[in-house]
Amino acid sequence: MAIDEEHTRPAGVDDLTVEALGNISEALEAVEIARGHLYAFHRLSGTADLTLGKGVDQLREAGHAALADRIQEELVGRNVLQGRWTFQVVEEYDDGYYADFKRLERAARDEIVEGKRHLYEAEMKEDRRTHGRPGHERTP
């Protein structure tokens, strides 16, 4: 049987600790997904503003200058939050909450389990797989 030292818990680490680190890792995964949605929000908001600008130009070209001017002045290039475009929201999130979350999750793993990742999942895989069956190998 192949040994997977990268996913073997260090001696003396109890089940509750592995479960706790697994939950912290799962929480980080949720933060990563939230970050992806934030970047999608950033991209979609930018696309909306650029597309809106094209629509405003077309309204003006079609002879609706007053309405085009109103939309241009009130909405095109507007902040999505007080004083912020979406790139500023993304930067603040990345540099603050996200960076701190990643740093502290890593610190917990480094301090307790020699930096090893996904110990909870690796042990779950070992428990759930059918030993000796193709497609159920421990390691690649």
From TrEMBL:
Domain of life: Bacteria
Official protein name in the record: Uncharacterized protein
Classification lineage: Bacteria, Bacillati, Actinomycetota, Actinomycetes, Propionibacteriales
